[in-house]
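ESCALATION

Customer reports they have been waiting on this structure for their group meeting. Please prioritize. Original submission:
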Amino acid sequence: MTGTAWAAADPVEGKDYTRLQPPEPVAVPGKIEVIEFFGYWCPHCFHLEPKLEPWVKKLPAKVNFRRIPVAWQPAQAPFQQLFFALELLGARSDIHQKVFQAVHVQHVRLDTDAGIAAFAAANGIDKVKLADQMKSFTVAAKMRAANQASPAYQIDGVPTFAINGQFETSPEQAGGEDQALRVADALIQKATVTR
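Update from on-call: job pushed to the front of the queue and completed.
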């Protein structure tokens, strides 16, 4: 859906979304940034994913969409490592959904070396390269940056969307997954005007 879905009733600050104070810088100047803060370990993120992917594909060219995996506990860090390692390996676009399926449907332990090796083998990924990337300095640096982004954006739950470093919304705040995507659409339109 586009921002026009909110033509009759604009989302309400403090109810449907929050304004970030202070605003955060965007990664790609000249583009509107949408960040999904998520965790592979999160059942809410898993349930949102089938709606999120088609929404992302319809975003205008002026929007830079990216994901930041969140790890609040040591047990969640392997999922964060896996995300960044797969990203660095240039994994296929469908691999993100396959990770969610492995964790939430197939109950593969992707927080263990054996589970990650089995997942890699099942999905045509070189398990040695994946393991090496997960232990790499680059992945460690990306994890540090992600762990700094969560408090900077005042993230207290996932999934959460940050729009242009100015606004945040989530299915919990907006009242559902579809509503959160509609609020995000409206905030993208608002960001176009204000930034």
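Sent to customer with the following note: The two ends are 22 Å apart (CA to CA).
Escalation resolved.
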